[in-house]
Amino acid sequence: MVRVIASPTDDRILDLSVLVLTRIPAAATMNWKFPIFGGAQQQQPQPNFQEIPAQSWYPPSVVSSPSHFSTPTGSSVGNAHQRAFDRPQSPSQVQPSPTEAAGIIARLKDKSVDELRKLLNDKEAYNALFISLDQVKIQNNLRDELRKETLQLAKENLEKEPRILELRNQCTIIRTTELAAAQEKLAELERLKEETLSRCSPSALLEMLHDAMNTVEEESEMLHRQLLDREIDLPSFVQKYKKLRTLYHKRALLHLAAKTSGLSA
User: Where is the VPS37 C-terminal domain (predicted)?
Assistant: First the structure.
């Protein structure tokens, strides 16, 4: 019976998949975890190797050589896990979707052992592969667009600076000249308003009505003295005196009604 082992090619694919996936933030947080770095003690699911011929997975030299026997959960998986977390990660990093992970793994499975070893050891080759991924290209395009928009806004702000300085100078002139005159006029209008309100207050109106009553009373007394002194005839006296007394009693009734209704307060 032939014993199935993990080849170095698959180990390197797994290493690179972990490294690449940990550097690509997903578009949305999902509840799915990659088998290697999803949890501290997660085990990689074991495929049913007995149902698949060994020749379809590994080359004959690997299957027939007893010196290459190893377990899938050996030091290679641990080293891949360690190398994945040795690289700097974003604090807000989230895991990619299964579709993105499958696409990255598919790109790595077609590479030879030498190519995978170069990707693991050569930083420039690794970065070239990383920036060629669609997810990275999308994020780089978004970054470039945001950078262009920011620069455009900065240029527009700088172009508006002379206009802002001009408006600021106008505000200073208005504050020192026109504003002072407007404040003085406003103070005068406020004073006139207070005087008008004081003249039209209920107590002031009652006082004016009382003074008008006294004026009519004095005119009535004067007209009466003229009659006694024969300075006016009786028909004229009756006509004028009747008008004065009617006006007096109207004002007296208004004054009494206002005081009774509490307007004097």
Answer: 183-265
